[in-house]
Each structure stands twice: as C-alpha cells, then as structure tokens.
Design brief:
CATH topology of the largest domain: S-adenosyl-L-methionine-dependent methyltransferases
Structural class: mainly beta
Strand content: 35-45%
Number of strands: 26
Distance between the termini: 19 Å
Radius of gyration: 20 Å
CATH architecture of the largest domain: Single Sheet
Largest sheet: 8 strands, antiparallel
Length: 350
C-alpha cells in the first residue's frame, strides 16, 4: 500500500486504511554499503503524525476479470460501495463492504498467490484501538494487481502464505475484526501500495459494479476469471516522491524471503546517499537499514538481505498461516545522517 511511512495494513473501519503518515526522521547507525550488504540496525525517532494519503484519481477499470468473493449461488447485499461516506475514501475509495453473517465462506475472486495472511485477532469495534486488529488476506494476481479480503474471523484462513489459489476457492471465513461496526466482508482490488482500483465483476449484472443497498448472487464457480499472471514486481515509480527513481530491481512487490539477496538500481540526487530500510507494519523507527552512495551521475546500486530480521523483529512468526508484516522504503540521506519518508511499501517476510 504506498504507505505513509507506515501503514499498509491499517484499515480504518469497515476499511479505512489508516493513512497516519508517521513521518520518519531517523539517524542511521551501523549502515552497511555496497553490494551484498545486509540490512543493519538503525536508530531514530518519529516526528508528530500528520494526516496524509492518496486520493483515488483513476477512472480506468483494473485489467482483471473477477467474480464476487463468496460461494456460487449465495446472495449478499452491499451496505457501503465505492466512495462510501463512512470509510471508503482515499486508499479505500474503490472498495465494497458486503454484509454477511460471521463464518460465511470467503472465496478468491480470481486465480492468484497468497502474499499476506493475518488471522490472529479476535477484536473488533469502533475505536481507533481496533484499526490494526482486522484479520486479512491479500492475493497477488500478477501485473501489479492484488485483491484484499478484510475483517475475517480469527484463525479461519484456509490458505497459507505462498499458496496458489483458484477462483472460487474458499480462503477464509468472514468475521467482524478490526475497525468494524457489524459483521461484513471488505473487498477491494488494489495496487502494490494498497491504493484501491476501479474494478467490475463478471457476475454482476449491468456495468459490473455493485451498488449500495443492492443484493447480488455470486457465480464464482471457478470459471471465467483471470488466470494468475505471475509474481508482481516492486513498482519502479513507488518512491518518486522521495526523489528516488528505481530503474531496475529483482525485488517482488510483497512477499520477500529472508535468505535471498535483493538488488535495486536507481537514480537519486547526486552526491548524496540513499537509505533502504525496513520498519514495522505501522512505520516508525527503522528495524533494519543499509545505504548506498549516489554517484556523480545520479545513479546508485544497492544489494541487501533480510537475514538479520528474524533476530531483531518482535513476535516473529515461524508459521505460514500468520505473515510477518513490515514496511519498506528508500529515501535520500541528509547531510546530518537523517532520512525520512512519507511513503512505504507493505511487505511480508518469510
């Protein structure tokens, strides 16, 4: 979810992604440089939060064929649609809330690969303390297109991180976790940064776009949807607002491996250094970082691994049924050694 130095998995309410922009001002220590570096620890502090976010500004339909995310033949209604006044704005603008009883099977809307599973929460309610409590599954469909299924029941996931899924396959049970006033399923098509995208369903009559207070019968029988197009890469333009342009990388958009080396090449302000750093799912101080020199022609190359992450992260999960959630960012290092970002990419690390 680009993310505001922070959040990718916070969903405000029936799904408001918490865009709390925890703007980071962190002094780098123990940073390693050059090829083959391992992200090292960094120290830093957090400046006061400020409200920041992306406004949905695209009217083009996402290039994916999907069906309603529940079993073939079942019927449910929309109680909040695109641009819903309650919580569907900014990152969530093109989302839907489908009212359904807790324990209803939730199905993959198209073929893909599971890149995120959170199912450890049993808490839900309308206070800000519930923003980060929603259980969720994110599926990568390839070509930078993802779907998110939110407010799921605790320990109800039927799939694991890395699993291939087919359209119509049950992936979890609906619930009422997180910032939520009533049992429902929040669903959205989104890009790698978590920005919801305009979408339509093959099995919704008319223009394919569900509308508030209308009910729809799913025809999600595993046919007529998009095939998995392969793992989505990290978008090259994701950190342009940080004056960083990535020109080449082998880093995926979401699911990273501890034992693998990743390389990033790009362009940045000449004469500076760039910091590559990992934060918690809500941003904040870097957990791991490395930096690289920017040459006089404004280019840089960096390589890093996440080998140290399991040792320094809190509550590291060793099971594929509960993802280790973090955020990743690249930003210029200032003359005093500090760096900060308003945007970060949500990642899971295994």
């Amino acid at each position: 979810m680009i993310r505001v130095c922070t959040i990718r998995s916070l969903r405000l309410a029936a799904c408001v992604v918490a865009l709390l922009g925890l703007c980071l001002q962190s002094a780098v220590t123990n940073a390693e440089t050059g090829q083959g570096g391992s992200l090292a620890g960094a120290a830093g502090g957090i400046s006061p939060p400020r409200a920041t976010g992306l406004l949905a500004d695209s009217a083009s339909i996402a290039p994916i064929k999907i069906k309603l995310p529940w079993p073939d033949g079942l019927k449910f209604s929309v109680f909040q649609g695109n641009g819903g006044f309650f919580t569907h704005n900014r990152l969530n603008y093109y989302a839907w809330d489908f009212g359904m009883p807790e324990g209803t099977p939730v199905c993959a809307s198209a073929d893909g690969r599971v890149v995120r599973v959170k199912q450890d929460s049993s808490e839900g309610g309308m206070g800000p303390e519930f923003y980060a409590k929603a259980n969720t599954i994110v599926v990568d469909h390839g070509n930078g297109i993802f779907t998110q299924y939110l407010h799921l029941a605790r320990n109800s996931a039927k799939v694991k991180e890395g699993d291939a899924v087919k359209a119509g396959e049950v992936i979890a049970l609906s619930g009422n976790t997180g910032y939520s006033s009533t049992p429902h399923l929040h669903f959205q098509v989104q890009d790698a940064m978590g920005q919801s995208l305009p979408a339509k369903f093959v099995d919704v009559p008319g223009d394919g776009i569900p509308t508030r207070r209308e009910s729809y019968i799913s025809q999600n029988d595993g046919t007529g949807t998009s095939e998995y197009a392969g793992e989505s890469p990290l978008p090259l333009d994701v950190f342009q607002r940080n004056s960083i342009k990535i020109t080449k990388t082998d880093m995926p958009a979401h699911l990273l491996k501890v034992g693998q080396e990743y390389r990033i090449e790009g362009e940045a302000p000449p004469g500076k250094r760039v910091a590559l750093f990992i934060m918690g799912p809500r941003g904040g101080k870097p957990i791991l970082s490395t930096n690289a020199r920017v040459s006089s022609d404004g280019t840089f190359r960096a390589a890093f691994t996440l080998a140290k992450l399991p040792k320094v992260a809190t509550n590291w999960s060793t099971t594929l049924t509960q993802s280790n959630l973090f955020t990743f960012a690249v930003a210029p290092v200032e003359e005093d050694g500090s760096y900060w970002t308003e945007f970060s990419v949500p990642i899971a690390v295994r």
